Amino acid sequence: MNYNTWxxxxxxxxxxxxxxxxxxxxxxxxxxxxxxxxxxGNCALNILxxxxxxxxxxxxxxxxxxKILGEKLALGREEFxxxxxxxxxxxxxxxxxxxxxxVEPEFLFCSAATFKVIPEKSSSNDSSLNLRGQNRDIDKWLxxxxxxxxxxxxxxxxxxxxxxKNERGSPIIDHYSxxxxxxxxxxxxxxxxxxxxKRIQNKVGEWKNDVNP
Length: 213
Known about the structure:
Distance between the termini: 23 Å
Strand order of the largest sheet: 3-4-5
Number of strands: 5
Largest sheet: 3 strands, antiparallel
C-alpha cells in the first residue's frame, strides 16, 4: 500500500497521524521494536498538545489527558491504541500543527512532488494569476484538496471548496457561488488574490490530464 496516497483522507486517529508523521506504517505496529513504538507514541502526545493549545483547551484538562495517555503508552501498544483512537484530527489541522512546528512531514506535503507544475496562463479576470508564479502555495493547496476529495469534476470541486471557507488552516477567506463572477478569495502567509470558478475548473481539467495522460 502507498501510505502517502492512503493518507489523503479527511481525518486520522491520533496514533495513525503520528505514525505517518514519523514515516512508519501504522498497520504494522505489531512488528515494531519498542523504541519505534515509543517514538510514535511520544510524537502523538506532542501533536495532541499542539492541537489543544491551538484550540485554547483548558490547561488543567490538557495536563490530565496527557498524563493519562502517557500512562497508557507506558502500559503498551494495545492500551495506547485504544486511548488515542478517540482523538481524530483532520489533515488541515495536522498541516497547521506542522507549520507551527516548522516541519513538513512527507504524508502531509508530498503532493507537490507527485504532479508536474503547470505554467499559469494570464487572465485579466484573476488577479492571483498576475503574480508570476508566486501563487504556488494556493495551487498546491487546491491540488491537495482536489486529491483528498477523490478528484472531482471542476464544478463539483468548486462547490466543495465552500466547506473550507474560513476553516482553520485553509487559505480560502471568501467563496462567491453566485453572481456574474463566481469564484474564491484566498490569502496565504505573504500573498492574497482571487480565482474565478472558470479558472478553478480549468485547473481541474489540467490536473485530470496530468493524472491520466
